[in-house]
């Protein structure tokens, strides 16, 4: 309850910060889009990573107002980049299952996009396989979001307790290859074979493949040979501020 009160205060005091990690096109090597990743700048305690407060935000339901703030801030960033004169950058936003239980998720997203005059195609929703397995609550909402023009992405692909059947039920555009497979892919043949198989499966189903945790030049080379479409990881950039995204863009595009 203590931390819950602190989270409430953090919302009021506007202590959350959104960082953006570049996603790189494997062919052009240009920035294609970004993933939004939240941080809590807690007074007197420095920067708190999401794994240390998102679970509590989910339990307490505070993920709903925090999630709303994430959308508002992401949309401000899109317009900020637009004003800076760089070509539109799609933003991927992580959604917790708890956010699918809120009645007005679609309404909330629609009104934020309409008010800011943002093309829905610039927003990608990232969900995990466990959310996809909760088909009764997630599927109708994802279909609505897809119909609005948003892009749907499966995060941490291949690591959840799930069956592959959701791949045909859900309107999925992107698969994100989990960083646990990428980490050892150059030393562990099983990991490399799993990645190769995910890419074959994904492409056969017309999905765009994004590799996470791309840390080395060797990762880039092997993933490129395997046909991966996009890269995200420290080899290119850590998550950075919306100002720094402009510097990144002007340096590399
Ligand atoms: O940035 P970092 O790698 O520390 O993120 C850790 C986890 O926190 C990731 O699994 C990510 O999905 C989650 N996360 C980051 N930002 C958000 C957010 O805005 N909303 C939700 N629900 N989860 C987030
Ligand atoms: O679970 P999700 O994929 O949403 O979270 C991604 C997490 O991975 C974020 O916390 C982000 O900071 C982190 N991350 C991003 N790139 C790399 C990387 O190249 N290596 C490692 N170890 N972590 C990364
Ligand atoms: Mn993610
Ligand atoms: Na991931």
UniProtKB/TrEMBL annotation:
Q: Where is the EAL domain?
A: 1-253
Q: What is this protein called?
A: PAS domain S-box-containing protein/diguanylate cyclase (GGDEF)-like protein
User: What superkingdom does the record give?
Assistant: Bacteria
